[in-house]
């Protein structure tokens, strides 16, 4: 743990916590002062094998202690946030301003104040929670009551949900970047979306819609369906000179209406194997959200008028992206309004646990020094001894960059053959990905049909690609 004076400096000067949040965080810190920062639990690392302890050098030991102190401090502050959030939600008759909920106590601000990356925090959260659990359990039981403590510290911190949200945010940012760059381009002279105002505003719109239309900690499938609805909204508004494909392209717009017009939403759902049953209600909910929540769009009297060559079935705001390459005045007002609304969402008692806005920029910027975006892995975990790093992942505690807390979960180091080391997630996805590209033939369906008595030739049962 950090010394008491350093901990108070984080609470008072960096986070500027209110009295109740500061007192509760200080109480947690005092309960955990007896914990040894150098303590590292021995846990299995990969296929049940236990890491062989390696005596650290003095420099490694100091680095490990600093990382452990920062991670435990951030965990205690995040625990303070979750306790105050639980109390605020349990007493609905009490105003939020009087419930102890502190708007400054967001996970993003906590990580910036403790100078720890988001990847490192997510990687060590479960181990740290198990370490501090026995020390803080009596105080938590007294604060929340015995009945509220039965779920345990891991459940209170929502460790699994938080880690899944971090992975999902990274995946969604990459998918958005890939789909956006596939369908849109600013200009032939300036290829790529970076610096394009539409690119950033669309990501903000997706995050705000996800916060309002989906439940807390939404599953990846629902979030991806909503992402396709945002892309569909862009297809209806970005001028055609910035489209990479013509509406007559049957490969990118395979689904057509009776009159032969490209149906953009159904085409996106078909190409990316999403669920049309789930996407259609989300598209309708997105239309209602745009009309009711965003004042900058209400001024334009949006309607359901469609472009002549595309059937998007989404709300149409005339002139929204009329100057798509540079950003119109309406687009700038929309971006600022979305920024303000996301700030408010993050400060709500049950708002976003961490800021997802920089994920889009981090994932696409390959020119940033790789030491800032070190990948989490067993070699860098507090749960086992760590070898020396080539460079420090954490920045100076004076002014850490916001992007420093958003490290990519994908391995940055390359194998000699140029491939990334496998992870449990990539192994599982790789083992089942071939199923997405396979579809049965009519002959196979007839054979599997219980009511079918036809003889089917074995050669007719080959699996074929659906596209």
TrEMBL record:
Q: Pfam families this protein is in?
A: DUF3452
Report which superkingdom the organism of origin falls in: Eukaryota
Residues of the region (Disordered) are: 47-66, 447-467
Record-level GO BP terms: cell differentiation; negative regulation of G1/S transition of mitotic cell cycle; regulation of transcription by RNA polymerase II
Q: Name one GO molecular function term.
A: RNA polymerase II transcription regulatory region sequence-specific DNA binding
Q: Which GO terms describe its cellular component?
A: chromatin; transcription regulator complex
Q: Which residues form the Retinoblastoma-associated protein N-terminal domain?
A: 92-237
Q: Which InterPro entries match?
A: RB_fam (IPR028309), RB_N (IPR024599)
Q: What is this protein called?
A: Retinoblastoma-associated protein N-terminal domain-containing protein
Organism whose genome encodes this protein: Apatococcus fuscideae
């Amino acid at each position: 743990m950090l010394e008491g004076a350093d901990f108070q400096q984080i609470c008072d000067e960096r986070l500027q916590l209110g009295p109740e949040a500061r007192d509760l965080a200080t109480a947690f810190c005092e309960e955990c002062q007896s914990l040894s920062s150098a303590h590292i639990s021995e846990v299995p690392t990969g296929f049940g094998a236990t890491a062989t302890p390696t005596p650290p050098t003095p420099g490694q030991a100091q680095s490990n202690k600093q990382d452990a102190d920062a991670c435990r401090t951030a965990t205690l502050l995040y625990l303070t946030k979750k306790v105050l959030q639980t109390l605020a939600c349990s007493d609905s008759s009490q105003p939020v301003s009087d419930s102890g909920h502190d708007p400054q106590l967001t996970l993003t601000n906590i990580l910036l104040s403790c100078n720890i990356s988001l990847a490192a925090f997510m990687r060590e959260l479960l181990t740290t929670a198990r370490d501090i659990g026995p020390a803080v359990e009596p105080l938590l039981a007294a604060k929340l009551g015995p009945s509220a403590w039965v779920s345990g510290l891991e459940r209170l911190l929502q460790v699994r949900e938080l880690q899944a949200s971090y992975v999902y945010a990274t995946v969604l940012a990459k998918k958005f970047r890939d789909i956006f760059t596939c369908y849109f381009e600013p200009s032939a002279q300036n290829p790529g979306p970076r610096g394009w105002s539409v690119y950033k505003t669309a990501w903000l719109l997706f995050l705000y819609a996800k916060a309002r239309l989906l439940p807390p900690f939404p599953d990846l499938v629902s979030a991806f369906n909503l992402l396709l609805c945002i892309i569909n909204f862009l297809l209806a508004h970005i001028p055609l000179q910035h489209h990479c494909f013509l509406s007559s392209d049957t490969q990118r717009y395979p689904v057509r209406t009776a009159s032969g017009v490209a149906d953009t939403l159904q085409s996106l759902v078909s190409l990316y194997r999403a669920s049309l049953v789930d996407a259609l209600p989300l598209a309708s909910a997105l239309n209602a959200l745009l009309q009711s929540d965003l004042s900058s769009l209400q001024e334009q009297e949006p309607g359901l008028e469609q472009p002549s060559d595309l059937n998007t079935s989404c709300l149409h705001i005339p002139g929204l992206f009329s100057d798509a390459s540079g950003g119109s005045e309406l687009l700038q007002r929309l971006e600022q309004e979305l920024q303000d609304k996301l700030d408010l969402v993050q400060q709500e008692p049950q708002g976003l646990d961490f800021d997802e806005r920089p994920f889009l920029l981090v994932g696409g910027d390959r020119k940033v020094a790789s030491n800032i975006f070190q990948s989490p892995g067993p070699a860098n975990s507090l749960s086992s001894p760590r070898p020396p790093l080539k460079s420090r992942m954490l920045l100076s505690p004076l002014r850490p960059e916001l992007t420093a807390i958003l490290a990519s979960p994908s391995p940055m180091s390359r194998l000699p053959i140029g491939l990334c080391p496998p992870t449990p997630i990539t192994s599982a996805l790789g083992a089942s990905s071939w199923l997405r590209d396979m579809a049965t033939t009519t002959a196979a369906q007839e054979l599997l049909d219980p009511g079918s008595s036809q003889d089917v030739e074995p050669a007719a049962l080959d699996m074929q690609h659906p596209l």
